[in-house]
């Protein structure tokens, strides 16, 4: 499994536009073959920082995601909204299991 996790800080006056962009991206991405999960979250300490957490069945599925129209929209629109460059990290996961509570 491939996991992508990261942050994007948006300009305060562009926050609502970013939410709408991330919502469109999420709604389309979850329909993709090979997507396990795809979510944006608002940082509880910094309301203009959005966190993304993605899970993919394979690198091939992630590569295909990068070629979609909704990713093209993100790449075109996000630079107009951000306050700092996004930070993303890719993880290759060999195994995962629920933590016992």
Automatic annotation (TrEMBL):
User: Which PROSITE patterns does the record associate with it?
Assistant: ABM (PS51725)
What's a Pfam family this protein contains? ABM
Print the keywords alphabetically. Monooxygenase, Oxidoreductase
**What would you give as a GO molecular function for this chain, any one?**
monooxygenase activity
* Keyword presence, Magnesium: no
- Which ranges carry the ABM domain? 2-93
Matching InterPro entries: ABM_dom (IPR007138), AI-2_Isomerase_LsrG (IPR050744), Dimeric_a/b-barrel (IPR011008)
- Enzyme nomenclature, EC number: 1.-.-.-
**Any keyword Calcium?**
no
The source's superkingdom equals: Bacteria
What this protein is called in its record is Quinol monooxygenase
Q: Please give the organism.
A: Salinisphaera aquimarina
Taxonomic lineage per UniProt? Bacteria, Pseudomonadati, Pseudomonadota, Gammaproteobacteria, Salinisphaerales
């Amino acid at each position: 499994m491939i996991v992508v996790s990261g942050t994007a800080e948006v300009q305060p006056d562009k926050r609502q536009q970013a939410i709408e962009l991330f919502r469109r991206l999420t709604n389309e991405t979850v329909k993709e073959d090979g997507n396990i999960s795809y979510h944006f979250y608002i940082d509880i300490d910094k309301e203009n920082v959005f966190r993304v957490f993605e899970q993919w069945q394979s690198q091939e599925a992630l590569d295909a995601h990068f070629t979609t129209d909704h990713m093209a929209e993100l790449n075109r629109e996000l630079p107009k909204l951000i306050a700092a460059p996004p930070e993303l990290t890719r993880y290759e996961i060999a195994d995962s299991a629920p933590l016992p509570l």
